[in-house]
Amino acid sequence: MDLSAMDIYELLPQTNCGKCGHPTCLAFAMQLANKQVSLDECPDVSEEAKAELASASAPPIKEVVVKRGDRELPLGMETVMFRHEETFHNQPGIGGTLSDTLSEDELEERLERYNDLTYERIGETIEFEVVGLNEESGDADQYADFVGQVLETCDRIPVLMSEDPEIIQTALDENEELKEEKPLIYAATEDNCEAMAEIAAENEIPLAVCGDGLEELAELTEKIEEAGAEELILDPGARDPLTGMQNQTQIRRQALENNFRPLGYPTMAFAAGEDAHETLMEACTYVCKYAGIILLEDARRWQALPVTVLRQNIYTDPRVPPTVEAKVFEVGEDHDENAPVLMTTNFALTYFTVASEVESSRVPSYIVTVDTEGQSVLTAYSSENLTAEVAANALNDTDLTDKIDHKEVIIPGHVAVMSGELEVESGWDVVVGPREASGLPGFLRDYSPNGQE
DSSP label at 125? Predict the structure, then answer.
């Protein structure tokens, strides 16, 4: 049972020393009761009190980590229902499913497709992290061989999917490397929970729990925890998107608002619509509504981009704009002394948009990014984070004059008004470029610094 702030206060040193960063022990106790701080922040709490306060200081949604090799996927540890209240912390792992009944050619084709599901967007590599390995044959040896074949050619984190504990155990025994990793095994149900819990506890790997509704799911998690398996991921069982979304929302709400421990775990969901477009829409729904692992049936390359871009947008901290380093970037190859110099802000989306257009022009160029605290060009200019003085300092702090024979900089057309002052402040000649990045390729092909041919 969760403790009240006064219960917690009675167990604290009550010295009001301020070492935890709070003015009084009571203030710290109130924050601890609301799951806003960690007990570790109090350096003087006794071991006896730590044991008694373990329940109160535990996060409302436990962190569970699945991993393989260098791939590590932390799940859970979320603290809010809505992103604007703070931020969402651990983004969901997304992947597709493969069956052990696929022919050799089908499996090879799907693995090739699966390994190719990787994109670059605003400086981040976005891709699928997990792969569901579905046992449909009923043959333990066939499934174990199938798992081994996938592990040889695909580096994603495996989800071993079978409700037969013997088949799961055989797959682990025949693929010893998995015992050194942390794959997810799926799934413990009312019928097999004790055997599955034993496998998970013995191998110290996470276990997915599948129940027919939230009440059964809560009963199963308590039973499985008592059996020694503590790293759990919840599947509420519904396969239609409306009920699935409602269950995902209710699990998050019960964990965060009611501190209901049996549902205080990350969740997973399956997207399998009547066609590939419905499957994609279901997956996107679960990205927005709290699933920790999302598995698409027969994932396609064209599905990967929208669902992973949505995830990247949702799991970007709204309090911290994405930025790039404020420095000189070289775009293209074989820069000579007449290479153009462009200026923009260090807002990541602005920089990568500009860089993409410059690259498509095939004109080797330099881009100077000004530190505007992650604001776009017009926003930075309006808030005076992009002024002639700031831009001049950014230009003159570079070593560009050692690389080029001119002092001419191209600025965004939206801030043409500061061109004269920038020339005075920096000593550089200023050329006003296009207002939109899409105009850069044509502009750069016709451009030469100081009118040089």
Answer: E
First to last CA, the chain: 79
Q: Is 426 annotated in some ligand binding site?
A: no
227 annotated as ligand-binding? no
Catalogue all structural domains in the chain, each as residue range(s) with its CATH number: 5-57 (1.10.15.40), 64-314 (3.20.20.20), 328-451 (3.40.50.11600)
| 20 labelled binding-site residue | yes
Residues forming a β-bridge with 93: 293
d(CA 121, CA 346): 15
145-163 burial, b if ≥16 CB within 10 A, otherwise e? ebbebbbeebebbbbbbbe
pLDDT of the residue at 424:
95
Please give the pLDDT value at position 49.
84
Check whether 25 is labelled as a binding-site residue: yes
Q: Answer whether 285's CB lies under 8 Å from 241's CB.
A: yes
Q: What was the pLDDT predicted at 209?
A: 98
Phi then psi dihedrals of residue 334, to 5 deg: 60, 55
Which residues of the chain fall below pLDDT 70? Answer: 1-2, 55-57, 451-453
Please tell me whether 369 is known to bind a ligand. no
pLDDT at 186: 97
Q: Find out whether 350 is annotated in a ligand binding site.
A: yes
Cα–Cα distance for residue pair 213/270, rounded to 1 Å: 15
The 3-state DSSP class for residue 220 equals helix
Structure confidence at residue 56 (pLDDT): 60
> Does 42 count as an annotated binding residue?
yes
Asked whether residue 17 is marked as a ligand-binding residue, the answer is yes
Q: Tell whether 437 is in a known binding site.
A: yes
d(CA 405, CA 83): 49
Q: At what angle do helices 193-203 and 165-174 cross, to 10 degrees?
A: 20
